[in-house]
Design goal:
By secondary structure, the protein is of the alpha+beta class. 35% of the residues lie in helices and 15% in strands. The chain contains six helices and seven strands. Helix 4 runs parallel beside helix 5. It starts with a helix and ends in a 30-residue tail after the last helix.
Amino acid sequence: MALSVSNLASSLSSLSFSSQVSQGPATLSFPRASSAFSLPAKTHRRASLSIKATVAAPAEVSEEDDTMELKKYVKSRLPGGFAAQKMIGTGRRKCAIARVVLQEGTGKVIINYRDAKEYLQGNPLWLQYVKVPLVTLGYENSYDVFVKAHGGGLSGQAQAITLGVARALLKVSADHRSPLKKEGLLTRDARVVERKKVGLKKARKAPQFSKR
């Protein structure tokens, strides 16, 4: 028993604890044993986010400026307004009405103070409607077309402009009647949407019949 106690005392005396007291009050630092595998220290970096905001001018402002410029241009070309002009024609289609004035020029088409391609949304068929009477007589680059259109949709307005241009060309020369009439450009298309009937879903569509 005494031998085991003496062995225990000798083993405890062989162990050594190293501690280092730093100058700061109540702070102890213990050295770490060096290991074969060393992990890189993690560095916390704050990601810097930079936001740059640029305020662009709205597109509506430029469109309004273009409209104002075209308004001034039309007023300079048509002194006294549409009613004071000589080469004028009125066309109608469905619910659309178009007042057309022709002036000698280079083939510009302005509808409601906007370029025809922009107003008719670049639709090639509608743009063709507007120029058919001029192309028929070979005047596509000889006259500028100024239009005031309202009512209906763009398709109806384009076809109303066709009739208006054809009627205005008659004011240029009475000899234009024969080729325009031959192409059917002087005929007013009277087709309109048929009205809805009472008891029916549309003009002629009826609800489904059921015996029981």
